[in-house]
Amino acid sequence: METLLTIVLFIVLLSVIIIVHECGHLIAAKAFGVYCQEFSIGMGPKLFSKKGKETEFSIRAVPFGGFVAMAGDTDNDLETKVDTNDIPYERTLPGISRIKRIIIMLAGIIMNAVLALVIVAMVILASGTYAKSPAAVVGDVMSGSPAEIAGLKAGDEIIEARYDELNISIEPTSFEDFMTFTYGHDEDVLTIVYMRDGKVAETELTKVYMEDVGQMQYGIYAGESEVIDVNILNCWGCAIDYLAYATRSIFMALGQLFVGQGLENLSGPVGVFEVTSQAVSQGFSSYLLLIGLLSLNVGIFNALPLPILDGGRVLILLIEAIIRRPLNEKVVNGLMYASMIIILGLFVFVTYQDITRFF
User: Is residue 118 located within the same domain as residue 151?
Assistant: First the structure.
């Protein structure tokens, strides 16, 4: 019964995120008069469909992804193509200005961000308090730890943290940024640039296994968190602070992927299902928070400059605006297929990792 409930809530989670994203595209397209033939949740064969005044609303067999079939949208072979013979040119994508097309492409990403903001704000409001991450300052150091041996002391302000051998660095704005950056680097040498009494210095340290906590650690503790009493007015600011940290963490992870780090931490549908199971077991607030965070992740993922994604299509439109002419159709199709192969390859890779971890 518990597994069945998790499956249902997993499908609900995916559906909510997809529906909100595609609703963004649909609302923007209709606002600009673009003919939308189909609004689909999922991909593959149709399971259910209902015709509206103009648009057909359908549910398809594969619950990953969705689309809005817009007149004149010929870039994506995974979507239904609209016959434009009887549709006025001004009601097609090529028939409206580039700025309007850009808004349509960005609308899904914006809706994902709005969903994340609303959910996180409501969860924080329900909790009654919000603990803001302390500044990137050493609160204390563990006795006998690498941090103590390296000479770090309470009150040292962390200006920069970097792994020279990996060519990655960060200027943390909070202690959580610092912790996220150093997560998983058990054997890499960390260089910390810090300020003490107005003077800048730097030191190197490597994690060691600390018996007291049973983990590989540097032995650096955070300072006191600022605890805020939450109400209907300030919950939005708290949610923005929380999502800003989550966004920095996502981009930090993406940056590390470009240098070949953190591939083992990627997850696909199987991993998301496992996380959903954990969130459900922790209560409804945890489940809602997961929806919000995944919505943010989906929005950021769609903003990546791959032509098959919204961000890539915006990039193509911007290039066309600069050169004042459409890109060669063969070039665009080639970029679409190449990015499709990248996405499918990533999907296979993360699914394999998820299954390997699961068993």
Answer: no
